[in-house]
Amino acid sequence: MDIAQIRNFAIVAHIDHGKSTLADRLLEATGTMKVEYDQVLDDMDLEREHGITIKAHPVRMKYRAKDGKTYLLNLIDTPGHVDFAYEVSRSLAAVEGVILLVDASQGVEAQTLAHAQLAKDLGKHIIPVINKIDLPHADISGVTHQIEEILGKDKIAPILTSAKNGIGIEEVLGTVVNEIPPPLKGDNRPLRALIFDSHFDPYRGAVIYARIVDGEILPGTKIKLMSNKKSYEVTEVGIFSPHLQSQDRLTAGEVGYLMAGIKNVADTKIGDTITSVVDPASEPLPGYKETKPMVFCGLYPINATEYTTLKDSISKLHLNDSSWIYTPESSSALGAGFRCGFLGLLHMEIIQERLEREYSLNLLLTNPTVPYRFKLKNGEIKEIENPTHFPPLQEIAEMEEPYIRGTILLPNDYLGGVLKLCEQRRGIQKSIEYLDGTRCKLLYDLPLFEVVRDFYDRLKSISRGYASLDYEYIGYRKGEFVRLDILVAGERIDALASIVPKEKAYAQGREIVVRLKELIPRQQFACAIQAAVGSHIIARETIPALKKHVTGKCYGGDITRKRKLWNKQKEGKKRLKRIGKMDIPQEAFMAILKVE
Q: What is the CATH number for 576?
């Protein structure tokens, strides 16, 4: 097909604004497929249950426009959560335009702003669409004004739609054809293709999702991945309709997939450039960077005999998602397990749920941590993710922790509570901007560890669900920290250790032991729970012993009879204390996240 009749576009929005439902209606309107259930492109059970898109989903559609011409529309349905922001940026780099979808009842939110700014920075044409206009509490005029604030009044007026009821779908398709420019011609240049996603097929290896920018690619082409210089021979190319459909070639401007017998999906890095071995491009496509995990936790099987199963399951799941990392580790309290790094908290929850569902595992996660950087007095720079590797204080010259810049959108009524929350979490205010008479935008620099804790839950609680958060990583900043250890029955539990600001160590240690006292079940013996910094105990609580009424059978007689039974019970309790072992529930390991 003539490149002038190709349109590549993505749908971006905040979570739950209706991206996947709009994609359903576009598939139906173009006759690509009959949609028999909602969110047909979200093919994972977790995506439907959580109501979010976890992986990008491309699809090719043919649309006959009013001018009588048939256009080829390549749509990419992108994730909406901040954890997958890098995937969104690469998906946008693969298209010429975006549909910016906004919920008529919720209005512009933090990730709407972030996606709009990203599309602007990449020079993409933006089509604003207001969805869910049929809801009784839809504020169409207010949302239109909010969109004009971020895009400018000179842009095209927002299209009013209801993806659920199919209202405005033809207008969306017509605007995509008329407003989004076709791809630039690059037929005569060396092959360059942008990888924006991939998945692993157990029979055919890694399946690469790519946008062909220059040249063409067909079976037999010898290709090279420019980030790692590895070479392969292409065995199959094709398109998404929405299922894989093989073609004889992919040319400049097209979006499709390719297979080349790649055994490890980790080699197909998102944002990487594919070129030809015979006639290679001189430089890669711009914007590629390595994804860096920012949230770490320990992953252990509840039953120690399941360690081998967990090891196999992790290696299989990693084939489909190489954006997280894992290394074996062992804990004195929990046994053998893995230290895992994730893009964010949602990413961590998704991986945990997939391991438990798809491989029938029972897992225990330790409290999430972030990477800290230490400059030692001998000149060495050490980065640690596990609190048990905290260097001795006398060897440390300087400490640093990662910071993010958070964008918070909220109604003015809740501004006071949110400002107080940000100050409590060591936030540094950068700006306050009043968008209209009812909403404002806050910019704060916050330590990533404070966000990894229950910051998002607290933000939603204070604002009754109306505030939204988006953030970006901005680098490391200096601070003073100590390692806070928790001892249960005199035993140091390394899985409960955490790195905390020095000035907050006592308060957090005090609250952790109080929470653990509530969560850890009582035993036959009294059990001490202690918080320690180094060799100093800074807080203690005691879980009282379960008591048995041993004198219940005594109905009279001398008190010495009862004392004899009590002393016998006391001796038994001492013996239990000596050989007893505590059972610590999963909730106890997450209690540290709830500390104020």
A: 3.30.70.2570
